[in-house]
Specification:
about 260 residues, Thiol Ester Dehydrase, Chain A, Porin, 2 domains, 3 helices
């Protein structure tokens, strides 16, 4: 199953419905990038006109498992250039994701500051994979290909506060869209898990992501560059910031996450 098939939604009355397929698990929950991609795909259908998604602020109150989900999306306001919408993804009686999504059309501006360039690092073929042979990775990672360039592998007992490198879909026909960007940003674990000496659970609590325009019609097999920094951790919670660059070298996303860690 491609990621595009996995995040597809359809309208049923006032709601949108989707199905979480088997194989996308992350511990006892579903990969958060898929859950939020389904939420975005449904919410986009509430727009009066097509507009790029610029920012999402999401929380994940309950784990989502394989099976059907429903998404309720409503417009808070449609302006001349910007639309704000609210969405809830439910599975049964539990809320798996609640999100505020902002969409904005491009417009002339006197402010034009280019984003930071992509770091210069070794090509993917010269770098090791992310997987730690002593710790099985989450099931959903089989859909991605990783090359580690920053920090250390998960559960390696490292003192590093960074993690990242090259990442791509293994079998996604493309072209890639905003939902795919959410998956690529969330495909990497929190840098905090590299500090564990053995496997331990970790789960995203909140996720704030800002999306920037990148090149059109990106091929599904292109390599994206990811870099995350662990800014603080303690009391069972970790706080990190991350950036993602497109295959063409353009900054595609700015991300912040608060993660509950149980190690």
């Amino acid at each position: 199953m491609t990621f595009a098939n996995a995040f597809a939604t359809r309208a049923e009355g006032n709601l949108f419905v989707a199905g979480v397929p088997e194989g996308w698990s992350q511990g006892r929950a579903t990969f958060g990038g898929l859950v939020l991609a389904q939420t975005l795909a449904a919410t986009r259908q509430r727009l009066d006109e097509p507009r790029p998604c610029r920012a999402i602020a999401a929380s994940f109150p309950a784990p989502v498992g394989p099976g059907p989900v429903t998404i309720e999306a409503r417009a808070l306001r449609h302006g001349r250039a910007v639309s704000h919408l609210h969405a809830e993804l439910r599975q049964g009686d539990a809320i798996g994701c609640v999100a505020l999504l902002s969409f904005g059309a491009a417009r002339p501006s006197a402010v034009d500051v280019p984003p930071p360039p992509r770091p210069e690092i070794a090509p993917p073929e010269d770098l090791p994979t992310l997987a730690n042979p002593l710790a099985p990775p989450p099931v959903f990672t089989k859909f991605f290909d990783y090359r580690l360039a920053f920090g250390d592998r998960p559960y390696s007992g490292s003192s590093s506060t960074e993690m990242g490198g090259w990442c791509r879909f293994r079998d996604e026909p493309g072209p890639l869209g905003e939902e795919h960007v959410l998956a690529l940003v969330d495909a990497w674990p929190s840098p905090a898990v590299a500090r564990f000496a053995a496997p331990a659970p970790a789960a995203s609590m909140t996720w704030a992501i800002e999306l920037l325009p990148v090149e059109d019609a990106i091929d599904g097999g292109g390599w994206w560059l990811y870099h995350a920094s662990l800014e603080a951790a303690g009391g069972g919670y970790a706080h990190s910031a991350a950036r993602l660059w497109s295959p063409g070298g353009r900054l595609a996303a700015l991300s912040r996450q608060a993660v509950a860690i149980f190690g």
